[in-house]
Amino acid sequence: MNCTYCRSEHVVKAGVRKLKSGRSRQLYRCNECCRRFSSAQRHGKRTPGKAILRALVLVCRGCSYDEATFAIRREFGVERSKACVSRWVTERTLPYLEIREKMAIADGPLVRSYLFTHSNLNYRYQIHFGKLLFAKAFPELVRYLKSLPNWLDHHLFAKASHCSQMELEDNSGLKHYTGTRLSKMTAEAIPLAQSNFQRHNVVEDYLLNGDRNTIAVEIPVYFRHPAYGLIAGHIDLLQVSGKEVQILDYKPRAAHERPAKVVSQLTLYAQALSRRAKLPIGAIRCGWFDEHDAYYFRPKDLTSQHTTDTKQKTSFKTFQADRSKYHATQRSR
């Protein structure tokens, strides 16, 4: 049996429901989206998750309920009332709606999207121009995000090593949190995905439009590491809160990830963004999350470590050269 909401196969029995007729109906629980359902066929109408997500995105971008209902009727053939759209909004946590009126801009769309194809994979880079007001403390970061589609060399991503394939030393400052607002919003977004394959994009769209701190998703970054050569990757979510920049990665099973691998991946992301956007590494915080758990840490500065190693190698070479000169002088005598 598959879940009727996300079509996952990770389904277990979850009790029995007693009906008014005296009969009982078996209930099931999905371990992926954590929703309960029965095996009985539903004869009533059910709104597709993609239509609900589209309506929520339009409302967050400043559209009225009338405009949202017209859009989902035209795009998905779904006929719903304004009261239905209003209920979808009130049932969810959308902090961006509290500041939506302050984010309106007149020189273009509020959210701009660009499709990049790197290593035969499609990445939809999106930037929320309204939320860039929160990033005034990082003008070089704003410039980098705005100018990316104009100068990015896409051939670099075909020959570069990916950050997800590298592994550095583990980070001892890793902290674990549960019940965060980020996880709660992720739990609201996951049931809107039609399949597990769509969860990643749905979570990104939901947070980019509904969260007040997420300013961009799928940000391409690259840099040349002194030991590993050219390294490239794509940051899932980028958040700005006060004078802190957060690099976040959505992992469907965050608690089962190997910390050393994810920490290495996000540390390289932080190093690349620090160089490209001229950010101090101390202003960056990294983490990965799902609908239950969130893990955060402060990335290490790989540049300073490399500088120390280079100084040690240089001093050792100088010592070898001086020793060779000394022995040559002794032999000549």
- Cα Rg: 25 Å
Q: Can you give the helix content as a percent range?
A: 25-40%
Number of strands: 12
Order of helices and strands: EEEHHHEEHHEEHHEEEHEEH
Which term fits the overall shape? globular
How many domains, as an integer?
A: 3
- Spans of at least 5 consecutive residues whose pLDDT stays below 50 are 304-327, 329-333
- SS field, number of helical segments: 9
DSSP strand content: 15-25%
Main sheet makeup: 9 strands, mixed
**Please, what is the average pLDDT?**
83
User: How widely separated are the two ends?
Assistant: 90 Å
Q: Decide which structural class fits the backbone.
A: alpha+beta
Task: Provide an overview of this structure.
By secondary structure, this protein is α+β, with helices and mostly antiparallel strands. It folds into 3 domains: 1-44, N-terminal domain of TfIIb (Single Sheet), CATH 2.20.25; 47-91; 104-300, no CATH class. It is built from 9 helices and 12 strands. The protein has helices at 49-60, 65-76, 82-90, 139-151, 156-159, 181-189, 199-210, 259-276, 302-332; strands at residues 11-18, 24-30, 36-38, 111-118, 121-128, 161-162, 175-178, 214-225, 229-241, 244-250, 284-289, 293-297. The strands form 2 sheets. Strands 4, 5, 6, 7, 8, 9, 10, 11 and 12 form a 9-stranded mixed sheet that branches. The longest helix is centred in the C-terminal third of the chain and has 31 residues, at 302-332. It starts with 10 loop residues before the first strand and ends with a helix.
